[in-house]
Amino acid sequence: MNQEVFLAMPVFLISAFAVLIVVLDAVSGKNKTINFAFGIFSLLATAGAAIYTLTLQVPKLVNPADYHDIFTITKNTMVFSSYSAYFDILFSLAGILTMLASRSFISKGYHEYKEYYSIIILAVAGMVYISHANNLLMLFIGIELMSIMFYILSGYFRQRIESVESALKYFLLGSFASGFLLYGMALVYGATSSLELNVIAQFIAKNNFNATYLTFGIALLLIGLSFKIAAFPFHQWAPDVYQGAPTTVTAFMSTAGKAAAIFSFIIIAKALMPSFTNNAMRLVSTETMQMILAVLSAATMLIGNITAISQKNIKRMLAYSSVAHAGYMLMGVVANNQLGYDGIIFYATSYLFMQIGAFIVLSVLENKDSSNINLDNFTGLRKSNPYLAALMAIFMFSLAGLPPFAGFFGKYYLFLAAIQSGYTWLTIVAVISSVISVYFYIGLIVYMFFKDSDNPIAKAELKLSSVSLFVCLIGVLLFGFFPSLLMNLYAIIK
Amino acid sequence: MLEMIQFVPLFPLIGFLIIGLLGKYLKNEKLIGTIASTAVGLSFIVSVLLFINVIGSHLEKPHIQNVFTWIAAGSFKVNVSYQVDQLSVLFSLIITGVGFLIHVYSIGYMHGDRSFYRFFAYLNLFIFMMLNLVLSSNLLLTFLGWEGVGLSSYLLIGFWYDRKFEGTRITWTGDAANKAFIVNRIGDFGFLIAMFMIFINFNTLEYQAISDSLAANESFFMNSGLVTAIALLMFLGCTGKSAQIPLAVWLPDAMAGPTPVSALIHAATMVTAGIFLVARNSVLFSLSPTAMTVVAVIGVLTAFFAATIGLVQNDIKKVLAYSTVSQLGFMFAALGVGAFTAAIFHVMTHAFFKGLLFLGSGSVIHGMHEEQNIQKMGNLRKYMPITYKTFYIASLAIAGVPLFSGFFSKDEILWSTFSHGSYILWGLLTISAFMTAFYMFRLVNLTFHGEERFDKHHLHPHESPKTMTIPLMVLAVLSALGGFLGIPYALGFWFSDHPNLLENYLHPIFANANHILGKHAHTEVHLIEYLLMALATAIAIFAIYIANKFYSDKTFKIPNKLAANNKGIYNMLFNKYKLDEFYFKAIVDSLLALSTSLLWKVVDIKVVDGIVNGAGKTTALVSESLRKIQTGIVQNYAMLMMAGIVAILAWILFVI
Q1: Which positions in chain B touch A212 (Cβ < 8 Å)?
Q2: Hey, are the CB atoms on B652 and A292 less than 8 Å from each other?
Q3: Nearest Cα to B266, choosing from B373, B345, B159, B169?
Q4: pTM reported for the whole predicted model
Q5: Structural domain boundaries in chain A
Q6: How many H-runs (helices) and E-runs (strands) does chain B carry?
């Protein structure tokens, strides 16, 4: 059999399971455990297949402009590189962590419907399409599949007004952004007469193409994606949606969703923003886009972190901080070099562990109507829930970017990449905004450890969430102490 | 065989860890003392084996034993590596040998102390650090040891942290510890800068590599500003550690520590670290005549002034402390005139007799129940015969009475300064030697002779236990006979061409430096050398005679009259030239005033805190206003998005 079939296995598997689990919903009756177990199984299988493809002779695809018709079975709409396999693993892992934490959480807050698991699988399917997309339409389908699932998940607590409100807001603004994304694709197609990223990349490389409408097209694409990662000024949905959505859903959206969106950034930037640093030729469009993204990145991290300071609700605070983290990740795209891209992937990976971990701690401590996740409620948490308080502190330290946790090296590589490509001012802004962010991350720790309360949150039951939390802790510590594990992996797989 | 060097520092480290971590639970004083002494004893045995090997193999080039890579950062790489050569092994012998004796002595001296184990943990830590200092093959590991001995010295000076101690602006022993630490910090600053300069210019911190590249480009480096600067900065470090002018003030106050500490750290070993460092970098120093002159002048001045202060002090340990400062000055004088071997020789003999003197004084203090004022002693020879006899031998040695060890080493230093042509320095040193003999026998007379000036009915002096007297006796033998290792050619030519064993032994170490200085092993005999030797002997005996005469009569008529007639001089000496007061008034107070009034109250509170708090308040204000943009109304969000899109597209239109 053709090796390509094996390479494509993660895509096939997740698509098949996504269909099967919907069918299973119809026949499984009242038994929700089957759906839950099947969901976990399908994600494990997808991740397993992706790990297997890493052991094969995976084509090393660094630059879309360098590869030609090699993916016959999908007619070049998809690529099967080791980068996509890496992201398949990441998305599946995020799905598993979320599902494990969700089981008790959603029955606590509302009612456990088995569709919840199907929707998560479908969202992961959308992300997997993104990570394999070589065709702009394929990318769009992946993004939309993922986004629509997110709209539904946000409104999952349908008796709760904030949840419904967040779903509606997300949907309206998301559709608005999708329009620009699609229009950008149309402009790029008009300029290059192709939707395939490698053809587009070769076209631009060969012709040193610089037309205004191509630049407009790229700009609109990036604007659409900026909405998805919640970058300024397209970020305003994020605090409302992240706060209103069920906490486990927020954990999933703000990590895996953000990772998928930032990965779209990488593939678009690699195909459409070639940097001819070695040649005399320099694309005006690339440099302009880098500059625009740098401004967006700076504004995003400053506004995200500064606004987070005055938040009282922890979930909303983390939502703003999530905006700021999108700003950090954009630095890698601004840098537009290999270290920048590796840095983004490292950051997305470490961010996934610390952010999911923090939200799961919240989800475990939440009461039925989510009214007890203000800073005041966390006062003296060390006494009632010492382990959860310690975990939360570790995740906060990591989010603040303090060594020896993973968050530190994520920032380090991105800052280094930005300096290497001459954006020192952006790095200075990033450092300043990191300092600002320490205020509210450590502020939470002060509440938990250095203040006493007469009325602390009762001791929480962990159940399956403990598995997720353990994995998150391991991730934060492992990649904090041995960042070279991941960086070496990138060196091998690229 | 030579690779066994790594075990020398290992044993005290293990001892330190065992006692430091478990000592609290061991409780048994004998066990703790045995562990600590064994650790040092084992190091001593290994050092002896190494010594035999070094002698037997006529080692020309040092053996470098790499233990592990310590720091590797770019082109900067430093190993923990030890260097076996004649100099390091000799120092290792002195440190572990004298150290072992003092450990044994301390078992008796510290008996019953509530922190017995802490004392021995610190002592072992000190030995470990001191061995790192002298055995290291590079400057950085030496610096680690340098700082480490500073730390243990600090910990041990303040060991009895709740006891009072009198001094200039010192009320507790802890203040004395602080003083030692802070004054040393000034010297360390010089050492550090010297190290940086060496690394920048030579790209290495290895002694051997530095010396080789200096010796290879002798004419280039000769008297160059770079070498002089490095040498002087390094010497600043030495003046701190070895208590020379201008940083000598800490050593007398370091006597706040238990007496074995004064013997081990503040007389026999740590304070000679400065001598070691200059000797180790002899090539560097010999390339800078300016630096050599500075070393010699500072040494002589220190020797002279410290001796004058020693004449009038009444605290038994203070006399010995000033004597130590003075003797260290002799050693630096020797280094400064290029007589490296003589300096090392004096380090060795000094370790014997000064260690013995301190231990003897400890025995006296122990027997007198913590009395240290020699005016309140007298006739102790009746009560403590062993202490008396050994103390007497050590005093003969330091006074320079022929055949005792101090005679040979001090005479070599005097002859070296004379033959170097520095007659003024020689003169000052000779006067200092006279004063040395005088204040030592003043001490002996006041302490052991005459009649009891203490309350015999309440105070019953007694001889110390065996663990204390046996080390005294061993050291007495060494003080008496140690000098025969360095018989000058003038006295030994009739039985050997090379009678000075130490000089032969250390020859490979100082060969380069001697070559640069144009020195040869002297094989001629000058009449004047005999004359000077006779003069030194006469001076020593004369001084002893005067001291005996002054202090043998019951009322001390002559010295009292002298003091009364020269009240100004007496008070100046008694108050140590008011150097401490001067430092406090001129430097410490003005620094404190500046820090308090300007740096703290204005720069820190107003400017720094103002900026920090202001930045925080501004950010919080901005945050509040940014929060208001988030209206919660979807239409507004879409508006902002649209505005952003328009701005971005306008930017692109504008650029392209």
Answers
A1: 652-653, 656
A2: yes
A3: B159
A4: 0.70
A5: 1-282, 285-494
A6: 29, 4
